[in-house]
């Protein structure tokens, strides 16, 4: 059984070789994330490797450009990591020099001025805590309140009870969008979003065949969540910064609420951050981490993401294998108890959803083995995916970037093919694909759906119930 939920792996030195990238794709990775908060020099070579692998394995792969936004970060360190002891004094300053065991650059002078004695500085998704004990001319002197603290280059910083409005793309984000377009990225992920304004700004700068992912990381985003969901293409529950902002104990309920809300509004959901954190250093995961992945799948997450586990971890391939195995095992249980997990989609305001819901109902017939959806823009593919049909979904688009984008969607196998020239040509393309699929046999039934007229349709408006071999 092939998994339905998809896996994102973050790119980094641990997986830059072509052999490792190929193994990751064969092991179940559907998309690669480029973290633009880090140095992306030479990333074009890595992307070229992915595109060669994609062709070699005949599997479309999404590439996500994750923008930095206004997420605060420290500067670079002199070593791969700096070890800071509990109760050790440590300086955060605005100097641009490389950091060492005594200090590190925090290049935000205006923020440093606003910090007070007693303020908390949290590093690396809140793993390490520092307390300000003295104000300095160009920084703050702190004391480390965590044991086993390791500071690495460009790690995130969160300041408790410190609000900073973010309504416009930064210069860096705009420059990185240009790089992402040149790289042929299929998705732009917006960090530290607070409302839908950033989404609208980004739409004007990206290509039409690129999608937007909104990372939910703060209280303000939660207050404006309905507006954000309607404006974006995908939601990412970025649990690291979110946990720091709302409290760790509130994250599970927020995760469940967001997945339910996105399901009703037909928006895919990514669950991210520390899913297999222990496997950065260890060959085997904890039972809690396995449960975390399974819980996300049970709740209805479309996609789960690995960050440091694949970027800098010792066991990137093993991490993907563990995640793949857990997803598959969980989905087998869900399939046997399908009635408990059928999602509820709001169809009141969108007739397209009513048509796709009919496809879903047809798909629960045991004689149906697949759905073939012709989708020029990818919109129909997204809707079919969010309806959670029980059978394989094959989406067809003449646009390779749309095919790559839809490969991230739950249950979707994306195929790049010519645009049908008419009804007969649509059936010929469908039959070609069915012949190559060993899981679909003669006398099985397949649902074929498309928008008519071909190439100009605004919505899915045609369903055909096709018996293979006739």
- Distance linking N and C termini: 27 Å
Radius of gyration: 23 Å
Tally of domains: 3
List low-confidence stretches.
none
Mean pLDDT: 91
Helix content percent band: 25-40%
Tally the helices: 16
CATH fold category name of the largest domain: TIM Barrel
| Topology, number of strands | 22
CATH superfamily of the largest domain: Phosphoenolpyruvate-binding domains
Category from helices, strands and their pairing: alpha/beta
Strand order of the largest sheet: 1-2-3-13-14-15-16-17
Described by strand count, sense and barrel closure, the largest sheet is: 8 strands, parallel, barrel
Percent of residues in beta strands?
Answer: 15-25%
How would you name the oligomeric state of the polypeptide chains in this document? single chain
- CATH architecture group name of the largest domain: Alpha-Beta Barrel
Shape: elongated
What is the CATH level 1 assignment of the largest domain?
Alpha Beta
In brief:
The protein is α/β, with parallel strands linked by helices and 470 residues long. It is built from 16 helices and 22 strands.
């Amino acid at each position: 059984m092939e998994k339905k939920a998809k896996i994102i792996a973050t790119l980094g030195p641990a997986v830059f070789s072509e052999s490792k990238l190929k193994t990751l794709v064969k092991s179940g990775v559907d998309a690669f994330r480029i973290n633009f908060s880090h140095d992306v020099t030479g990333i074009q070579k890595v992307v070229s490797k992915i595109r060669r692998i994609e062709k070699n394995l005949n599997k479309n792969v999404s590439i996500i450009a994750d923008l930095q936004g206004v997420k605060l970060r420290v500067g670079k360190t002199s070593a791969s990591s700096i070890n800071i002891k509990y109760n050790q004094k440590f300086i955060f300053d605005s100097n641009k020099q490389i950091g060492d065991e005594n200090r590190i650059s925090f290049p935000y002078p205006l923020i440093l001025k606003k910090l007070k004695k007693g303020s908390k500085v949290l590093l690396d998704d809140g793993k390490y805590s520092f307390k300000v004990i003295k104000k300095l001319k160009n920084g703050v002197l702190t004391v480390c309140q965590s044991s086993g603290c390791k500071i690495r280059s460009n790690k995130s910083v969160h300041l408790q009870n410190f609000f900073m409005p973010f309504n416009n793309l930064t210069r860096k984000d705009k420059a990185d969008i240009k790089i992402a377009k040149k790289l042929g990225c299929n998705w732009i992920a917006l960090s530290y979003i607070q409302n839908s304004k950033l989404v609208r700004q980004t739409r004007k700068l990206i290509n039409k065949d690129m999608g937007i992912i909104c990372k939910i990381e703060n209280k303000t985003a939660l207050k404006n969540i309905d507006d954000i969901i309607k404006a974006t293409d995908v939601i990412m529950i970025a649990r690291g910064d979110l946990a720091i902002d709302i409290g760790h104990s509130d994250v599970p309920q927020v995760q469940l609420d967001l997945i339910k809300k996105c399901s009703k509004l037909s928006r895919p959901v990514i669950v991210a951050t520390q899913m297999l954190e222990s496997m950065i250093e260890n060959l085997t995961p904890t039972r809690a981490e396995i449960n975390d992945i399974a819980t996300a799948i049970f709740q209805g997450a479309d996609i789960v993401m690995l960050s440091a586990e694949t970027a800098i971890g010792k066991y990137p391939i093993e991490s993907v294998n563990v995640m793949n195995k857990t997803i598959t095992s969980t989905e087998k249980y869900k399939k046997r108890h399908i009635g408990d997990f059928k999602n509820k989609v709001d169809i009141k305001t969108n007739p397209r959803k009513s048509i796709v819901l009919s496809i879903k109902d047809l798909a629960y017939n045991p004689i149906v083995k697949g759905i073939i959806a012709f989708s020029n823009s990818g919109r129909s593919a997204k809707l079919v995916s969010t309806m959670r049909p029980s059978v394989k979904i094959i989406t067809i688009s003449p646009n390779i970037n749309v095919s790559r984008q839809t490969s991230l969607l739950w249950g979707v196998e994306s195929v790049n093919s010519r645009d049908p020239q008419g009804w007969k040509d649509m059936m010929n393309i469908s039959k070609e694909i069915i012949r190559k699929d060993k899981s679909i046999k003669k006398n099985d039934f397949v649902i074929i759906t498309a928008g008519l007229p071909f190439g100009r349709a605004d919505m899915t408006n045609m369903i055909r119930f096709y018996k293979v071999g006739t």
